[in-house]
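Contributing new records

If you add data, match the layout below exactly. Sequence lines come first and carry their own label; structure lines follow with theirs. Keep one chain per record. Anything else will be rejected by the validation script.
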Amino acid sequence: MSSVSYRLVALTGEDRGREWRLRSGRNVIGRAIGTEVKLADNRSSRTHAAIDVGEELWVEDLGSRNATFVNGRRITRERIVTGTQVTIGETDLLLEEVVGRSADEEKTVVQTEPYMRKLRDFEIQLLSHGIVGRSPGVMEILDAIARVSRTDATVLITGPTGSGKELIAYALHYCSLRKEMNFVSLSCAALSETLFESELFGHVEGGFAGAGKARDGVLHYARGGTIFFDEICDLPVGSQAKILRLLDDRTFSRLGSNRTEVADCRFLLATRYDLESAVRRGMFRQDLFYRANAIRVHVPPLSERAEDIELLAALYIEKFCIQYAVPPKELTADALEKLGSYEWPGNVRELQACMERAVLLGESPMITAGEIEFGGGAQR
């Protein structure tokens, strides 16, 4: 029997042409990892708005930076119907009906995994954010999240590129007492020393050469929430001293200002490098290493998590079938064997791309070994 469900279709912006199936209940829209409608639009907030699906449909702004608009009108919370256009940042999203199985009726990893082994409540919640696995390495990560997520302790997350360090950081935030506030990810490699500090601390007018009018930094935007320093080892040594002060006494000053402010944030750090080696080579401050290394969570490479490959692959297949409105697909035995024999140099990120390619290019409901194409590396 057919039923009616709903989807959002991106009409403009970087996600133009993408579709997201909406589930019953709350569907959060934004840039944060784990949101039901994850946008690439940098003008959207990390948790920008939400659409509630029930007997009626409602859209609500979640305190975004740039507001939420319905058919061109700024709203706080409003009832909507199919055909409504919701604007988030620079992205216009069209609400449409879908006739067929609803997203809630799909047989998903999120629904079946809790019955395969006894999961803690927070683990069941994290399944919907993409944190799945049965390997010892994942079990250690979940135990660490259970122990430290509801504290304000600084956590260092280590692991190779593409292994999911930002996902673990978001999980620590999502399970914390600060989860209703903003989660901000700041790349330590993407900006010069001055621009990084301006982005983090903010600056007063004329605070450095080329600075325009005064602006707040992410420490202000993330007040009450969490800041994730991605690839902390790439931060210039001069800035590392200021991060040490921030972690030690939770105070900072805007560039060009002598006024001290208090940072009400939880701090998470990540690196792909061996920090002990970086300290010996003079690339990383020893005092910052000792301060940051109190609690460490290590994310193993996918090649050391063979037990998780099938589960992750199934999750990504389900995700992309829903996202691209493709009929449900499954992996054949030979496809699973091929996935298990690969080294995965790009880790979980490469597996995700591999499954997206298989979903879009495969011509039948079964994904065979011949339809699995790797992005590089060698088979073992």
